[in-house]
Write a structure and sequence with these properties.
The protein is built from six helices and five strands. With 153 residues, it is α/β, with parallel strands linked by helices. The structure holds 1,3,4-trihydroxy-5-OXO-cyclohexanecarboxylic acid.
Amino acid sequence: MPHPTILVLNGPNLNLLGSREPGVYGARTLADVERLCRDACEAHGCVLDFRQSNHEGVLIDAIHEAGAAQAAGTLAGAVINAGAYTHTSLALHDAIKGAQLRAVELHISNVHAREAFRHHSHISPVAAGVIAGFGVAGYTLAITGLALLFLAA
Ligand code: DQA
């Protein structure tokens, strides 16, 4: 498969990047992040599918779709920043597990250095890897990691 897709899936409130708590999340917008992800995907010979939703069910549908595409050999996997759903959503955990999706969990901030309620993740047990605390550069790292995992599979 010469040009597999990489899904970058962003959850609630990430549409506010750039204006939302810039001291925590930085000044770059979601459109900036999309450009950065596109460059990283191109560098690895992959095609980017970049999405954001504030709705849990929409994220779940995207994960099911991605699992099917991965099984069909057209998708390398997904980078998922589930936002606060990371800490609350059993449904996202079940979706990743059920769809057998190769997922890298991504956080812009170092969630472990923040409030205690951000220390637990429902995504981590079903993720292939986790990246947190590198700012939006973490998206590039996560895409690189996912591409390496895909090549090694
Ligand atoms: C986040 C961290 C979460 O705790 C928070 O709810 C977010 C963003 C991050 O990228 O650092 O919305 O996932």
